[in-house]
Amino acid sequence: MGLLVDLLVCLGMLAVVPLGLGLAGAGSLRPLWCAGAVPGAVSLFLPVGKPAAFLAVLYALAAAVLLAEAVRRLPRALRDPRQAAFATALASPSVAALALVAERAGHPLLGYSPELLALTVAHFHFAGFAAALVAGLACRPESGRAGRWAAVTVPVGTLAVLAGYFAGQWAEFAGAVVLTAGMWLTGLLCWRTGRAAARLAGAVLVPTMLLALWYALGEASGIPHPGLGWMTATHGVANALGFGLCGVLGWRLTRKDPS
């Protein structure tokens, strides 16, 4: 599972985030992001220790630049659901960065093992950055109330899942319910664009988010549910390739010049 997760994280660092920055109106930050993302990706393939942790810190500095941009946009985000979604997307890599630095140093963080931290890194590139970005892009004047709800529920669901890491598994399940509702609404709006890549991204969300609900409910209630390895190979891969990458590519094709 380790190699698969590392490859998915590389996809997020080196493709999904750089492509998505222009769509979020932050294309000017792409060179700074890549300057940190490349060493961050290299760190994934080094043994756990100080050199890998140092490269992860460079990635964390790039994530901090995006976080600063998210904070700068906060006044607009409080008034505009679309901007709130974009700000959530820009802030998400900072959560991944904290997890990556700890994992590459070989230390648990807030009681979470390095294995779970590695999954957190992947999660906040796709269920964080990509999901919030696409939800914001789907919030267009022609999408009406559905677009506004998508732009609100995906960030709220993402933050609720993050809060559930600390508040307990039932809180995490509640966050997964909100996030799933937002993702399905976003998927419907992606389907309506008519672009093949965006439609694929929307369709993929139906089974992948059902899996997420099943897993979260199983963790909270104890009912039989897929393990982390199976979730990574199904939910993780499908969301990364089918939703994250295809969603960003589909919306880039929808716009003339997103950069």
UniProtKB/TrEMBL annotation:
Keyword Transcription set for record = no
| Database matches in InterPro entries | YndJ-like
Q: Which domain of life is it from?
A: Bacteria
Give UniProt keywords alphabetically: Membrane, Transmembrane, Transmembrane helix
Sequence intervals crossing the membrane: 52-71, 83-101, 116-137, 149-167, 173-191, 198-217, 229-251
Pfam families on file = YndJ
Q: What is this protein called?
A: YndJ-like protein
Q: Which organism is it from?
A: Actinocorallia herbida
